[in-house]
Amino acid sequence: MALRGEPTARQLRLAVELRRLRDAAGLSAKEAAAQLGVSGPVISQIEAGIAGVSEKRLRRLAANYSCADEALIDALVAMATDRTRGWWEEYRGQLPTPFLDLAELEHHATFLREAQFLFIPGPLQTEDYARAVYAYRVPELPSGELDLRVQHRMRRKVLLEGPTPTPYEAVVHEAALRIMVSDRTTARTQMARIVEMSEAEHITVRVIPFELEGFAGAASAMTYVGGALPKLDTVVRDGPHGAAFIDSEAQLVAFRTLFRKVEAASLDPVRSRDFIHRLAKEL
Asked: What is the reported pTM?
């Protein structure tokens, strides 16, 4: 099997989980290779995500690692044997890899939860809003790449508007609603779009108003992506140099707690829709 030049985030996650199973078993890579009957580099290549692993070999590895979690093994097999080439592959070589990784992650998500405080969450953005956000980048993007990024963001909405939509919950701070990244027309259209989407059964939008006392969670912005099992969840956070994908069990527990705190501080969905309606009328 040819080695991959650039594994995707999903392929890397499979590699990480297999390494965690080996570590839990107390085996070295050399010992794991010997038990599997392969050369030493094979395990290292699998655990680096640059080599794939068949279902048969993965199940043998799990048995050698004394893993009795059948649900986890089945989920890892699904990750290892998945051959999906989704719409995001059209952008490979044209957009930075994290754009593709996020779209692939969302495609396989069992649910999504977002908490945003300065920007409208990506899946809820209108085209004009997204264009204004990307156009503010320094250095400025060439017009062709700007168009590609906006197009990619709009196509991500398939997770909410496709034939099998993903359950989605967003908590948005009033600051994100009030900051006009473009003009008033764009802001009004954006708010109307949020209200419209929030009326769908699988979409929940909550608002945290400025007037809320005792809220110190503005640094808790996140996209929480549900995996096939809780231990396969992923948190995505934007950083100065691009998106960071977080998957350690301790951090996942912490971010679940953070999201519950942010959610508890927000208005209920009906009051949130009314709040956005009132805010739009003020513009």
From this structure: 0.94
